[in-house]
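Sequence only, no structure available. Ideas?
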Amino acid sequence: MTDAGDLFYSASSPQGLISPLPTYVDVRKAFDLETAIEGQISLDRLPRFVESLASHSGEVNGKLQFSITETGRRVILGSVSAKVVVACQRCLEPLALQLSDTIQLALIENESQIDSLGARWDPWLMDGPRIAVAGIVEEQLILSMPLVSYHPDSGCADALGYKQMEEDLGGDDKSRVARNPFDVLKVLKQDDEAL
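Reply:
I predicted one. Tokens follow.
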């Protein structure tokens, strides 16, 4: 048995594989042999993740280590990374995005076991004798996607004509502040009081 703190395996390990990630792993064998796999996975095998992309081209890599902790819990440790293209949500032009995340999953057989997991582990519900590798990778990539993706520089905002509205309050350029949208209401209220 290995301690769950040993996140990765040596690439020179005879158990480590460097090839395309398999479609599935057998639960009994993977954990008993403490299997380690590493490789690429095609975006074709990640249909839910591809829905959020602007292009179907990209590179996805994953490392998975199937282990049993000293307490007998079956865990999956590893990492995923991807180089993909999404749409900038300001200008809608393509935006290259680098994603990466760590994997710390504990296998459970039913949802009632979730409460017994520590804060370190995310649950992975086992639904048969096989684990779909693409499912693990896809779930981690979806969770690592930023809520909003846009170009880091202001080039696309400037090209679209987005500018902060400012007004001069009679001083130099340093005294400029953003216009308050409620100033119009203040003027209307003053007009009503004058009547």
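Residues 50 and 56 are 7 Å apart (CA to CA).
Hope that gets you unstuck.
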